[in-house]
């Protein structure tokens, strides 16, 4: 199925009343993963604001918070006054040194706090920006941490550039697989 067809199915699925009521989950949490080919990232990134706007305009019980991990990281680094410094250091650091520098500013708690805030005002949480922040933040680790915060309160959709088989996340279609059992594919 082409990416545009799959994105249309996302809209259809979220439109169903049972989506926000989380019916049919057999007491499981409502964590979903929308996986896609990384080459389709520009299409997905462009579609998400359109999708959110649609639900803002058409539904009162489908307000969607977009939690863009990359934007949050950049905001956090700006707030700490280190963004320009890190950009300047980038040319002098090897990949491992840059990774270790960035990981200090990408603490999971920062992202978790943003999601916790969104739970009060929104019905659905979209997590985006994975392609820009991987491997600094690993999706399976973030989702595991979210269980404590979100639980069964709201549906969470992770937009994932790679493949999700139902129990394994394979980022960017590469060999770095991570097991994650508690989510389900948003679209088969």
TrEMBL record:
Pfam families listed in its UniProt record: BrxB
Top-rank taxon, per record: Bacteria
Protein's name according to its UniProt entry: DUF1788 domain-containing protein
UniProt source species: Geotoga petraea
